[in-house]
Amino acid sequence: MKCNASQINCPVGTTIDIIGGKYKSLILWHLIDSTLRFGELSRLIPQATPKMLTQQLRELEDAKLIVRKVYPVVPPRVDYSLTELGISMRPILEAMYSWGEDYLKKSGREINCSMKMHMSAND
Question: Which of 23, 80, 120, 123 is the residue whose CA sits 20 to 30 A from 73?
Fold first, then answer.
């Protein structure tokens, strides 16, 4: 069945709108099994400028996929983690990883990033 992504209630369009930002899927992937600080995310996604990473984190927070916890300490400490809704993205992210891994192998390209498939709790 065809789906017009410009329709407000299109499931695929909605998903793309929520996680389709340049670094959003990478942020979610790194948060699957971890709570991370901004600096850690910045090191894991070095191609993202601080401004872009901040913007993507805010959009994921607005979409209720991540939670930002600020600790009242000096210097300021901020942790990012997935919400229950964010955790529900895991199968989609794992499918993206598997598809990309297969594509790279079939293209004769080496996987040279630090990302690895996360083991789910059921494995």
Answer: 23
